Amino acid sequence: MVNLTIDGKTIEVNEGSTVLRAAQSAGIEIPTLCDHSELTPYGGCRLCLVEVEGARTLQPSCTLPVSEKMVVKTDTDRIKEARKFVLTLLFSERNHFCPFCQVSGGDCELQNAAYDEGMTHWPLSPGFNTFGVDASGPHFILDNNRCILCRRCVRACGELVGNFTWGFEERSAKSYLVADYGVPIGESSCVSCGTCVQVCPTGALIDRQSAYRGKDFQVDTVPTVCIGCSVGCSTTVGIRDNNIVRIEGRWAEGVSGGILCKVGRFEPVDDNRERITSPMMRVNGELKPVTLDEAVKSITTVMKPLAGKNGNGVAAVASTRLPVETLHMVKQIFSDNLKSSMVTSTEEGWSTTNTAAFAEETGKVFEGKVDALDMADCVVVAAADLANHHQVLGFMVKRILPTGTKMIVIDPESNDFDPFAEVKIKATKGTFADVFAAIKASSKNQSASELSAKCGVSEDVITSAGKILSESEHPVFIYSRGLTAKEGQPALAGLVDLAENCKGSTILCTKGKANSVAASQLRLDKPFEVGKHQAIFVAMGDEDPSQRLIQRIEGVPFLAVTAAYKSKLTAIADVVIPVEMWAELEGHFLNIDGRIQKVSKAKSMPDGVAGNNETLKAIANGLGVTLSSDWKKELTSRPSSMVIS
Amino acid sequence: MAKPKISTDWLAGCAGCHMSLLDIDEKIIQIAELADIRATPITDLKEPDESGVDVGILEGGVNNSANEEVAHRMRSRCGILVALGDCAVFGGVPAMRNFFTLEETLRRAYVETESTDSGGMIPSDPELAKPTEVRALQDVVPVDIFVPGCPPSPEVIFYVLSELAQGRRPDLKGDLLHWH
Lengths: 645, 180
Hints:
The complex is a heterodimer. Chain A is of the alpha/beta class. Chain B has a five-stranded parallel beta sheet, with helices on both faces. Chain B has a two-stranded antiparallel sheet with strand order 4-6. Helices cover 31% and strands 18% of the residues of chain B. Chain B is globular, with a radius of gyration of 17 Å.
């Protein structure tokens, strides 16, 4: 520990801490611009200058490490003058005319800093130099004229997302932000995760959807969890007049610590699908608006007599974007009470069946926590497409590679992570299990020549993978359904065996949609096969029905669908009941590392929308079914590959 | 003590700051009781007294030779010069044109704009003021007090006027400090 004095206050902080963080820990405010809690200190803006006893010049507190008996002042006239001067230079450099900027009036950290210093004007008038504007990207716009060169975006892109798209061209006042080697954003390596937009202190990076739709103080922010995929990142949803304005990550919270991907940040705000706002029933071949009671009654009238008829009775499918509460109700009504054996999820267990069966058969709890990536010195990506699915998990892998973490990609197909891999294993024959066995042998210094030959991989490649694994202390293995899709449980068994032979290892699985693990735990995970079923109930939530699902359902005598949006599925339904879209949901989701996370309702439903649980309760009521609300017990009653809590 | 004399004028602005001044409503009577309101664009008298005024207030940036003349005249005739509004303080919205050359902006205004029917002529009569780059007032004459805002709110304007009318220097901070 180090003791220092800031503004007369004695403060004890860890060695290696900066003066800025020490001051913040003691509640002493120092204005900053280039600093960000999640990024490494940069010392670029000079707004955080402080006076240090014995130092000739003012020092940037964000990059100044604390030392024993240091005496710091943060509020002298000399400092205040310096701050004003720093801001004056920033304002004079580019177009910082506030009246025509989207973040002005609350959201601009530069403007707020000037207000805090009581600046009524800019002592130096701007030079009116012009820089480029890049609106080629799908989700955000770069206006270099608003940039203060703080490089938060550059650091965020590299340190948090591992994408390294942003960089600067030219030098000093002429510097400007560029994607890659100066290509338009839309043609660059940018993955539109929007982390740079969230950290930008000015209006240099603005989000197309939320721009001009409300400042932070004008929107209600609801903390919730993203249901874009099974990772389950913590978000806040900004709502104004019951409209979704923007989605941001919550720094230092949840699975990903604040980073999101485009699926979580931008795409949900860009949703133009048509809502269903009234229950509907097919009358003379056409869907006509009816009351909820009428709609529910028509469902229960058809389904009640079908109770207990297996194979020619009722089948039900529920979306894995629905909360556990809803999935649990679907299970109770259709599986437990109507005794249908065809009750499943829209995922049909494709990402979980083998994992769940393996866990059940072996009793092994072999999957760990995403946090393990923070410590990982080796990441083994086994048939997981982290560049395109569960992207945040991919970011968390890519961002640790520059610090020396070695990546091994085991994927017979081309994988977008191949270019970043230390070792790529492309088996041309044999199985995944053979590859894992070969690596295991090699990591134990046994000969891998025969096993390598079996999977058509050069022994050198296997040996280098084995060497990396044997030298690593915290390897993390990430697999996806691709691992078991063709080869089933043996592939997974091979992976688990290899991981068990590596000290300090963790296994993660990408799973599928937001609640794929919950669906699996509730056994809503079988392939959806329609036989002579007389009626099908589909709880679609806000998910888009796949063509495959629709094809299998077509021709069934009676189809009831609960859905938020109109689709080809609702078009062929006999009864349609409108339900919540994601931002209107309240309930729990089980993510990839076993966290039960609560999703909060951010906005209210349009008039006429009934809601998932209300509808299912009404159906249960009509069928004379008593529903239990103890979904937690049910969720943990099946042995799982991970600790659920 | 005689009431302090206040005079105002406008340059390259939109008159919005003066509208905001009128928006102080009945409180303008309080100002009139405390101060002697002399020439303004919204009173009959158009030029500040040659004998001088205590406070001169200018709205708008300086974008041509006529503005320069008005600014210099006000500066020479007033004790305290107030830059009122974002255009006078920073250059404001009119300063957007500084990102282009004068030739480009004139061509856009008189030749290329779809609604313009001027025969494609850029006015060049020697009687006309000569356009310049848009400047903040402080780049043309020394300014004593800056009142930013687009426009400054009636509350801010009333505060500034009442302080000046009572011989005090307004200090804009906290809720009173907004650039637009």
